[in-house]
Design brief:
heterotrimer; A alpha+beta; B alpha+beta; C alpha+beta; B: alpha+beta; 14 strands; C: alpha+beta; 5 strands; elongated
Chain lengths: 794, 280, 167
């Protein structure tokens, strides 16, 4: 792609020079005088009564400053949650533990080795109780996870359309009638969308420093939501919001797992207040899977009813989703988010019912895609199975059932959500028309001709991103528990400094998305500045304008749009100043090449430094004009955005071992307008690796007693460079109409589109043997077993 | 993440090392690739770690006429790159861990640690290697057949050091093949087989196959050797012999495979390793 | 225990507990916080440094083992402020996002190119197998290393997949 415009062009990242030198500041890098360190005593059992806790030996150990248990911290709990359905997490377990790894006591010591030593010396006497891990068992309510809840089912999300009982009944009727039609084809599969451990390579870390003189907390945390964390801490400690300053410096990956307020964040603040010292907690990798949220964990039956010639008459998904033991930030809202895209890009009647059940396991919450990968997995797996069953090309079946381009901009999904823009047929046709697409099919056929098992997989997808709409809070997503206004808006502040440089301060909490570059491009384009003149800062709740954070592929669409509007305001004022300086009409002022000039006379330009100086010397301004040159804007989106696309994969399977190798991966994504193609592609690359990771490698495995067997990277298999191919990316561009930049968001597309593409390809490879489905991850063992089962005639 | 306290000794002579090791709850460390993670996870807490890293003269692979001697401080990358060593061992060393692990970890350390899913112990067993152990009572030689006792348990005494592994120089060729946990050859073996074969007058005259990843320890597939010796080594003969790979061997299941799957893989990799060895 | 070693060309002496891991020694005692910790089983590679010219995971090495050794960390790569070709490659080819795995990844790439100055794509992918990245899907890391390999050999790097605009 070639462009001469800064907006839409590749600019190398401004973030990188520090990071490649090892000079980026992450939370654990922070040194503060007098820093004390925390280690937690964690439950080895999934469900147990705590009979006693003896801390005497631990307290007597060298360097130990304090050991806290529930009694000391109960007044601050339980942990706040946005969607407070279910049992909220106690800060420290009080009399009973509900999952392995639950924090039972907190040790504070002079250094982390001493803290770890003392944590080991805390004696806890447990009485083991039976654990519920299996989702169907939990659903049966034969035994309960929490005695004080009526049921293990925390909430049931039923949709089709959403929130409309009459409409749902009608949809069910329609599908029932379709099934009874002569010649109806019904394809149904029960499939697991396994639990995952998000595994940001930077373990979470938090440093809290209470200054009793200023009565203020300064908290550094590896969080995606600095403002929300500040709000939650202020609320928890009964402080004014400006008495808590949260700084998220460099954050080493988030993917949703740092989109939570954690009990350890509250507890280190408490300890700092108690001890009068700054206190740090850094997770170890081994404790992380049980102290940081996990993702997914669904089992569901997807059913398609259609005609023999490819018209789909109905789709149903009935399933159970694992919430874990305690509700944290969004928890039960993740399956709800899945319903938003339950019908994908299609117009057919869709019925969705997901029971959210609690189990004796770690909390689940948002992991890259959050509900949408699950939704797309079930839908696109079963569409694939249907196409296979009726012997039609998968692309043709999809195109036949897509919502047509003409339906936009007024398209409403069968689930009941207004969608912004979409050209689904065109997008899939563009993928199919790529030479690589035909090559992949030819390579599959050639491999088959050599007697190999090779498969080609296809999936289309749609996402809902750019949260927004602000009024989403009306559906139960409330930030009020975090002491924040309940609106999904974004903000940006643009300040032209007296020397003619600009500072842009935003309310997002990036963790590698390149906001410092992208936002500079947005502002540079408007102000005619070079990107190098602009510095973007973020992640400091005391200094940056309010924003809810970085998640749900929302930052560019929402906070980016706010920044764009702030830049327009600055430009507007600067136009007036420049018009005054150049004795021209304001409407003739153009900003380019680092300054302003009158249209048609670039030679008589005034640089930003001169315009800015005037602004900061109000006596030199036109009469009545206020001094200063900065503006703040809030962007309140009227709707979410709906990115979409289509992916294709080529795999080869070793029939003897079941080993799956991913040979090629091809995409046609549509995220609306693109601000920086390099960064957008990078987001896709990473998203793809995580979707492929789910499909092929990753799985959080619990045994029947609730022990997590995959707490180290030895057993929780992340894809390595050697496991993945080069990604072959292409795109169509269908601008969104819900924000001025026309962007849709790209952070999760790769993940949402890919897991089912891989499984579809594996099933295609094995279909000559009669295999209809292989559960994720498609590890060699599973694939081999599927082959054996098919051979056995099962 | 944070090991418990221990004392540390870095002797410069073998005598000092043995003397240090004679104390209560002392543990030998060469590259540390196996030991240090266990210390960090607090799964092991020795009173004393005896670091062999400062010993002289143990970091080479020496040709001693009828065998090659791999010193205690020979790193995986050296073993992988030593053209004098049989292919099975070189391949196994090259597939051990990752680059950084191969830069520091030692072949002797891996063999002494005897993780049931690691690559080199099986290769050493198939090649009929000999372990040289030095202890307070002097030096003793332990045949690979007798060395591996159980999961992470060897015939090595707590006060002994595996100073050298001897790989016999004999006619024949060898190969190693495996399925790693991530598929391909990456990571620990779900299952693997190392095979050594000798041919004379067009027939297989001798053979040893060792399995890794499927039982508590690297295990000789004796039924395979018996079945293949005397045959012409044709595909059919190998296939028939490989079918006996798991005969008489207790196969264990883990997160990566059931008994049936591992039994099957033992056969597949026996076939592949034998085929590759014969092609070599 | 007393240890003396060379870190980034500078002689360093310190008193450490035997159990202190090299990575903690570098980060806490020497304030070289560019070397990161991502796991405890030696799988993620974020802590990769050079020990006597070969890559090693500093979380799986005791500080006392490094006595007398020559250590290079990410902070020691640039010479007189000028980025090493691998660092430059990561910047030029968008080989990083969050930047957390990056120092270890760069050290591994430097080690790889020392051993194999002109690696194939497959050799690069296997050469960085001991370093996990969760952001980039590795695509641009491979491109970054290809860029650096060319630069170190005095060749023109393969073209980027994009054209830069003048910013």
């Amino acid at each position: 792609m070639s462009t001469t415009s800064v907006l839409g062009g590749v600019v190398k990242r401004r973030e990188d020079p520090a990071l490649v030198r090892g000079k980026g500041l992450f939370v654990d890098d922070l040194k503060v005088a007098g820093l004390a360190h925390v280690a937690f005593v964690r439950s080895p059992l999934a469900h147990a009564k705590i009979k006693s806790i003896d801390t005497t030996a631990a307290i007597a150990m060298p360097g130990v400053l304090a050991v806290y248990t529930a009694a000391e911290v109960n007044h601050l709990g339980p942990l706040v949650a946005q969607v407070a359905v279910g049992k909220l997490r106690p800060l420290l377990a009080d009399g009973v533990v509900k999952h392995v790894g639950e924090a039972v006591a907190m040790v504070v010591a002079d250094n982390r080795y001493q803290a770890a030593d003392a944590a080991e010396a805390v004696e806890v006497d447990y009485e083991a109780l039976p654990a519920i891990v299996d989702l169907k068992e939990a659903l049966s309510d034969k035994a309960k996870v929490h005695d004080d809840l009526d049921s293990n089912v925390l909430i049931t999300w039923e949709a089709g359309p959403w929130g409309n009982a009459e409409g749902i009944a009608e949809t069910q009727e329609k599908i029932k009638a379709a099934k009874e039609q002569e010649g109806a084809v019904v394809v149904s599969l029960e499939m697991v969308n396994q639990r995952l451990i998000p595994t940001a390579i930077e373990p979470r870390s938090v440093v809290a420093d209470w200054n009793s003189g200023y009565e203020r907390f300064t908290v550094h945390s590896s969080t995606q939501i600095p403002h929300a964390l500040a709000g939650a801490l202020a609320k928890t400690f009964g402080l004014a919001s400006n008495a808590v300053r949260v700084i998220a410096p460099e954050v080493g990956g988030g993917f949703g797992c740092k989109l939570n307020v954690y009990n350890d964040e509250v507890l280190v603040c408490f300890a700092s207040q108690q001890l009068g010292r700054p206190v740090k907690f850094t997770e170890t990798r081994r404790e992380s899977p049980n102290s940081t949220i996990q993702g997914r964990g669904w089992i569901g039956t997807a059913t398609i009813t259609g005609t023999a010639d490819g018209e789909i008459l109905g789709f149903e998904l009935v399933g159970i989703a694992d919430m874990g033991a305690y509700t944290q930030n969004f928890t039960v809202a993740i399956p709800f988010l899945g319903t938003f895209v339950g019908s994908g890009q299609y117009g057919f009647p869709t019925y969705w019912k997901i029971d959210c059940v609690t189990t004796h396991t770690m909390t689940t919450d948002a992991y890259r895609g959050a509900g949408r990968p699950e939704a797309m997995y079930y839908l696109e797996r079963i569409v694939d199975a249907y196409a296979r069953k009726i012997g039609m090309d998968g692309a043709d079946v999809r195109k036949r059932n897509f919502i047509p381009a003409e339906a936009f901009p007024n398209a409403v999904s069968p689930i009941g959500f207004a969608m912004d823009t979409g050209r689904y047929n065109e997008n899939l046709e563009a993928l199919v028309a790529l030479p690589a697409y035909a090559d992949m099919l030819a390579e599959r056929d050639a491999a088959r001709a050599e007697g190999k098992l090779a498969g080609f997989g296809l999936s289309s997808y749609v996402e809902v991103c750019g949260f927004g709409p602000s009024a989403l809070t009306g559906l139960g997503f409330s930030w009020s528990a975090y002491g924040l206004p309940s609106a999904f808006n974004g903000s940006g502040l643009v300040r032209v400094n007296p020397d003619g440089t600009a500072t842009v301060i935003i309310g997002t909490g990036p963790s590698g998305q390149g906001h410092e570059t992208t936002w500079a491009q947005i502002v540079a384009e408007q102000l005619g500045m070079s990107v190098d003149q602009i510095r973007v800062t973020h992640g400091d709740s005391a200094e940056s304008p309010f924003g809810v954070g970085t998640f749900g592929s929302r930052s560019a669409a929402v906070d980016g749009s706010a920044t764009y509007e702030a830049a327009l305001k600055v430009k507007d004022k600067a136009s007036k100043i420049a018009a005054h300086m150049l004795e021209a009409s304001e409407s003739d002022i153009r900003f380019e090449a680092g300054g302003a000039h009158v249209a048609g006379s670039p030679e008589s330009a005034v640089p930003w430094s001169e315009i800015a100086l005037r602004a900061y010397q109000p006596h030199t301004l036109p009469e009545g004009m206020e001094g200063g040159l900065e503006a703040h804007a809030i962007f309140s989106p009227g709707n979410a955005t709906w990115p979409f696309g289509a992916h294709a994969a080529l795999v080869e399977v070793d029939a003897d071992t079941g080993d799956v190798r991913l040979r090629r991966y091809l995409t046609m994504d549509d995220c609306g307008n693109v601000i920086n193609p390099m960064i957008v592609d990078g987001q896709l690359h990473g998203g793809l690796a995580q979707g492929v990771g789910q499909a092929m490698f990753e799985e959080a495995i619990y045994d029947d007693d609730g022990n997590l067997l995959t707490t180290s990277l030895m057993d929780y298999l992340l894809p390595t460079a050697a496991d993945l191919p080069n990604w072959e990316l292409h795109r169509t561009v269908t601008p969104s109409n819900v924000n001025p930049l026309g962007v849709k968001g790209i952070g999760e597309a790769g993940t949402i589109g890919s897991a089912q593409t891989i499984v579809n390809a594996v099933v295609d490879a094995l279909s000559p043997l009669g295999v209809e489905h292989v559960e994720m991850p498609v590890r060699p063992r599973r694939v081999w077993e599927a082959i054996q089962a098919a051979k056995g005639g099962n | 993440m944070y090991p418990r306290k221990f004392d540390y000794a870095a002797p410069t002579t073998l005598a000092e090392a043995l003397s240090a090791l004679s104390g209560e709850n002392a543990k030998v460390m060469a590259g540390g690739m196996s030991l240090i993670p266990l210390l960090k996870l607090r799964l092991l807490s020795p009173a004393l770690v005896v670091d062999l890293g400062r010993l002289e003269g143990l970091d080479s692979i020496d040709d001693r006429g009828d065998h090659l001697a791999i010193g205690a401080l020979v790193r995986h990358y050296q073993t992988a790159g030593a053209e004098s060593l049989p292919a099975a061992l070189r391949t196994a060393a090259g597939w051990t861990g990752d680059v950084q692990v191969r830069n520091r970890g030692t072949t002797c350390g891996s063999v002494a640690h005897a993780d049931l899913a690691s690559d080199q112990p099986g290769a050493i067993l198939a090649l009929g290697g000999t372990m040289v152990a030095q202890g307070p009572g002097g030096t003793r030689e332990i045949a690979a057949d007798d060395f591996f006792v159980d999961a992470m348990t060897t015939a090595l005494g707590a006060d002994e050091i595996l100073t050298e592994i001897r790989v016999p120089k004999k006619e024949g060729s060898s190969a190693y093949d495996k399925l790693g946990r991530r598929g391909g050859h990456t990571d620990y073996a779900v299952a693997g087989a190392a095979a050594w074969v000798a041919k004379s007058n067009g027939a297989i005259s001798d053979c040893r196959v060792a399995l890794t990843g499927v039982s508590t320890k690297p295990t000789l597939a004796t039924a395979v050797a018996e079945a293949v010796i005397g045959t012409d080594g044709s595909g059919k003969a190998i296939e028939a012999a490989a079918a006996k790979a798991a005969d008489g061997i207790p196969i264990l299941e883990d997160l990566y495979g059931t008994v049936a799957y591992k039994t099957h893989l033992a056969q597949v990799f026996t076939r592949r390793a034998l085929t590759a060895a014969l092609a070599g | 225990m007393e240890v003396s070693l060379t870190v980034n060309g500078r002689a360093v002496q310190s008193d450490v507990e035997p159990r202190t891991l090299l990575v903690h020694f570098l980060r806490e005692n020497l304030n070289l916080t560019g070397t990161h910790v991502g796991c405890e089983t030696g799988y993620c590679g974020a802590c990769t440094v050079m020990v006597d010219g070969r890559t090693a995971k500093s979380c799986t090495l005791l500080a006392v083992q490094a006595d007398g050794r020559d250590i290079t960390t990410i902070e020691g790569l640039a010479v007189n402020g000028e980025l090493h070709a691998v660092q430059e490659g990561f910047w030029e080819r968008h080989g990083l996002q969050c930047g957390y795995c990056t120092p270890g990844m760069i050290m591994s790439a430097v080690g790889l190119l020392q051993e194999n100055p002109d690696p194939t794509e497959d050799e690069i992918r296997h050469g960085i197998e001991g370093n996990l990245c969760r952001c980039t899907g590795y695509h641009n890391i491979v491109k970054a290393i290809e860029y650096a390999a060319a630069r170190l050999q005095g060749k023109t790097p393969p073209p980027a997949e994009w054209e830069e605009v003048s910013a």
